[in-house]
Each structure stands twice: as C-alpha cells, then as structure tokens.
C-alpha cells in the first residue's frame, strides 16, 4: 500500500498576538484610573451593586457589594466602559461576585463602538461573533484574548449565560499605543491641518452646492463668524442626502478625525466621511469599522459647540469629504480636519517607480506585440494580460498606466503560477480605473503586496488594448529570511507531544517523525506516514499560545519515494473549530508541491 507522507515545518512571525506583553496592558478599571461615571450598565440590582462595582478584584465593603449585579437575568443585560480615547483593545479579564453569593457569568460576547450608538461584535478570524468562556467560580480571573485587537472608544460586555445571577467584575486589556503601527497618538488627534488657521486655501474647499455666495464652501472654517466676506458657515442649496463638502489637503496626509460646528439655528447632526486621492474620483472610499460597516458619526446638537470625532483607524488621503446624513433646520457646517503633522514619510509612502524597461525586469504576456514602449496583445485574445518578474521580492504599493485600458485588475504571485488578486474594500476584487486620456493614471493599493511577479489584466478598453505601465514599490528588496522564521518543528522547540495526526502507519511513522529534514534513525522512519490514503488524513501542531502564522515548508519521506503533491491548511484557536486558509477570492487555497 502506498503510504501518504508529509513532513511539516510551520513558519511564522516570532511574536504571539494574544499573550504578547505589547497587548496585555490593563485599561485601569482595577486601578481606578477609569472614572466611575465612565462605567455604565443596562440595569443594576440596587445602588450597592451599580456598574462602578464591576471592577476587577474589587471586594465588598460596608458601603457596597462585591460586583456589578444586573437587576434581571436575561440576555439584554450589559456593562460598558467609555475609554475616553481611541485604543486598540485586545482582550478581557473577568471574575464573578465577591462575597457570600455564588454568582458569575459563564459566557459572554463583547461589542465595541466609536460613538456608543453603533455597535460591532468582536469576531473570530473568519468573521463569526466570538462567544467567550466566562467563569466557573467567584474569584478566579479568566482572561480571554480577541483573535485580533479592535480599535474602539467604547467596550461593552453582554452576558449570554450565568450561574444563579448575572454578576461580573472585569478589566479591559489594551495594546501599547507605541507598538501599534497605526496608533492614533496625541499629536495626530489634536493637530489641526489648516481649516481654521487658513493654511488650507479657500480654493481647496469645494461643495456640492451653496445657498448663496456668502454661504459658500470657503465659509466652512471652524469658528468662523459672519463678517464682510459672508455668513458663519457653509449652507447647502438643498437639504437632501446628495450634499457634501470636501477639502484638498494639497498632499497625501495621515488623517485621524474631524471637529464640527453648526452656526446659530442650523447644524449637521450625523454624517459620514469619505476620502480619496483624486478630486474627480467616481467612487470615494468610506471610513468604516473593522467589520466593513460604514461609520455614521454623531455631529452637533447646537449651533456653537465644537464636537470632535476620531476615526476608528487613521487614513492616508489627500481629499476628504464630509457627507451629511441628518441635520437640524438646514445643512450648515463649520469644521476642522485633524491629522499627523507634516507630509508622509517617503519610506512609509513607498513611492519609488520601477521602470519596466529595466534589464532587471522580465516581461511576459498572453501575446506579445510591442510598438514603441506600448504593449498591444492580439485582437482575438479573450483575456489578455501582461506580467512583470522582478527577479527579487518587492513590496508593491501601486501602478501607473498610460494607454487605452479603462479598467483592469491586478494579480500577484511569488512563483508566477499561484496567482492572488489585489482586493479592495469588503474583500472584493479591486477593479482599478484606467485611462480616459493620455495623462498618466496612478492607482495605489489599499494594502501593499509582497511579491516577485505582478500581472495586469485589462477588463475594458477603447478600440483595442494598448498599455504602458510602471510599478510603484518600496525601496530595497525583501529577503525571505527577514520575513519568515521557523517556529520549531525542525529545531524541536515544539515538543513531540504537541504534534498529532489523524492516523499513523505504525509507531515508527508517528506524527513526531514529521519534522523538517528528519531522517531514519533509531527512533523511527524518515517521515510521518498515515495509515490510510484518503483526503480525510491530517497532521496538526499545538503552539500552546495564539501565534501569527505566515506559511509552511514541506518535504516528502527521506527513505522512500513518497510525498504529498497538494494540500490545504486549516487553523483553529481551540482545536475543535477549524477554518481553511482562503485565497484572495475567498475560496479554499490549495498548495501544490513540486513532484
């Protein structure tokens, strides 16, 4: 019987996401740094068991009880904390009720929000709501880490099951802001980009309409008042959902939020934020939560108070648009934009242009017909494409194009065969706008891709396909050794007891033999071999902590001509519920090995 064999070495980044000291910092419920009026609940049993009693390790005293205790036992109860600043939240610690009552929460979900109005559930890595295991007694601390941190201003715990009565003490765990690549620090959330100071010239402020010239877009500066130039604030000509006001910042900047005001009897009560790198862009991006839902920001309640809204995550943009969705009396707005000082760091912006005429680039295409510096594929080619091989691994951030192609998709690959598609918002395939004239068109990816091969596939064009392009890259090359580090199969840092399999041929072919570069010795054969050749066989590793995984290396059996030709990879946080690695289109990814 031919034996199915596989030797695995799991690769990944060397830090643990969940247990890392960088993301286990207490918010301050236990220490008292969180103020009593920032903790609220759906109900309380009595004044001695209010939400302020829900602090970790709090004990009953002469004046109050040993936990927050809900008035009723149902799944509509909750307790929440206003963190007063946008933070990356990574987990929760819970306890039951301290004292003479055996009460605790046995399971719960966590929600987060930027405004305490629109709430999102904390989800697992496949997007399903996470139900966290709670407590089994009154006083033991139970820590639950999220699959990935969430950026929020408010955190809410909703019990879903409990022992005797809903009673809870808790702490919120956060990431150190300096360790978060997109941390919204104080300098970026308080720095005004120039509406009020007039560093942004009036010509850079445009609107969908204006009631009259003295209510024009230029009047929308924060704290502006009526003067000889006009009214205090921009007023739209019509009160409908099609109105907007936008600003050209003059260069791409990190933008973190906005401050809004009304004036006298009019103001905007709710609005969305849109952004882009082109004032004439057809589809503006919308500021969204991590789940993909658009953020509707709470605006003003009077004509003078300045209201600050910080975005869930800082954005990189040149053009920012405010889109009112609700208003009082009329659409009337004054505002300021908040962001990081200065222009983008060139290294962060990654704006180097890689010339396609370089000898270092190898070009291939579905069909080749070159005229000058333009690519002309055959007329009868149904799905034309052109591909660049850099010969080294690059970090790609965008492309520039000229020619007749009006829209296109981009694919990328490490080996030129297994292609992934560049995706956009909502994990949909990104269809980039192409050229409408002879002016060079620049398209920047939502997220950089790391690759050796990049392929442009035209989707629409004028007359026939003609294309000339350049790739926008970060400086330097990327070494695989710099990106990936082995987690310990070959080195035996992963103990044999943490390697399991669906079956084994015999003890000499057990899962412990599946270490990379293993050979036959006194302990056994040169590979794990399954008992059966079916596609229900598997081998798995327990890392003992949540770990970020980036890939695998495989070999066949060292002493017999047997190997695995293709496989899928699944992952789990509990060993019971498994998800398959997907490609960029959302379908299971199957890796093929070299035979």
Layout: helices, strands, pairs:
Layout: E1 5-12, E2 25-26, E3 39-41, E4 68-69, E5 79-95, E6 104-113, E7 119-121, E8 132-133, E9 142-163, E10 167-174, H1 186-190, E11 205-207, E12 234-235, E13 245-261, E14 267-276, E15 285-286, E16 297-298, E17 307-328, E18 332-339, H2 346-349, E19 352-354, E20 362-365, E21 370-371, E22 374-375, E23 386-403, E24 405-413, E25 420-421, E26 432-433, E27 441-461, E28 467-473, H3 480-483, E29 485-486, E30 499-501, E31 528-529, E32 539-541, E33 549-555, E34 566-567, E35 570-571, E36 579-580, E37 591-592
Antiparallel strand pairs: 1-29, 1-31, 1-33, 2-10, 3-5, 4-10, 5-9, 5-10, 6-7, 6-8, 6-9, 11-13, 12-18, 13-17, 13-18, 14-15, 14-16, 14-17, 19-28, 20-23, 21-22, 23-27, 23-28, 24-25, 24-26, 24-27, 30-32, 34-37, 35-36
Please characterize this protein's 3D structure.
The chain has 595 residues and is mostly beta strands. It folds into four domains: 5-14 and 484-592, Galactose-binding domain-like (Jelly Rolls, Sandwich); 21-182, Jelly Rolls (Sandwich), CATH 2.60.120; 192-339, Galactose-binding domain-like (Jelly Rolls, Sandwich), CATH 2.60.120.260; 352-474, Jelly Rolls (Sandwich). It contains three helices and 37 strands. It has helices at 186-190, 346-349, 480-483, and strands spanning 5-12, 25-26, 39-41, 68-69, 79-95, 104-113, 119-121, 132-133, 142-163, 167-174, 205-207, 234-235, 245-261, 267-276, 285-286, 297-298, 307-328, 332-339, 352-354, 362-365, 370-371, 374-375, 386-403, 405-413, 420-421, 432-433, 441-461, 467-473, 485-486, 499-501, 528-529, 539-541, 549-555, 566-567, 570-571, 579-580, 591-592. It is flat, with a radius of gyration of 29 Å. The chain starts with a strand and ends with a strand.
